[in-house]
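#lab-general

N.A. 3:47 PM
ok so I finally got the sequence cleaned up, no stray characters, all 220 residues accounted for. can someone with queue access submit it? mine expired

B.Y. 3:52 PM
send it over

N.A. 3:53 PM
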Amino acid sequence: MMAALDRRAAASMPDIGGIAPMRPADLADPLDFILGDHYRQRALCGQIERFAATPVLDRALGLDIVAFLSGDMAIHVIDEEQDLFPLLRRSCAPEDEIERVLAALSREHGDDERTAQGVCDAIVRLLGQDSDTIEPALREPLVAFARRQRRHLMVENSIVLPLARARLSAADRANLARRMASRRGWTPPRGRDAPAAPPPAGTEAAASFTPSLRRAPDRY
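B.Y. 4:20 PM
back already:
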């Protein structure tokens, strides 16, 4: 459940591995916020590849990667699964054929959640050891995860967000911004004063998508 998140920490999360955090004011347009999150995730992919390729273990970067995957990225997936995707299902026209795309992305979210949890666990174990090198068995999954994330982001940026800009109403965007702000413990940005709308159709089903990564490991 989202209650397990430390909202105060999410609201004041520092730069992670040189990746600047999103701010409450960025929610003035929630679709721009999601796009910004995608750019941050693409930067994270570069950090993961750098971590895997560094001859000497970069412990600080390893902790940053775990913090991002278990915090910002997990919240971002919930934004999409519980809010953006249900809004698109309700708003898109049949000819948009969005269900096929969203179903594939949701499957990838589930796969990525499990992989990311394994990555986090492996990094935490590695950081708890005396070795200053990364085992070859860990390097390959790290690089593969980064590559899959880049492909996933390409689909969302080229198909999902353009359709969202074309199909979502001002009220839809206002409601999306409010729910995303609430999820982070933020005050919704000014200018989003449309009457509160009920949760998008399908939210009840999407509520079952509760990534275990929404809680950072308590071992660091």
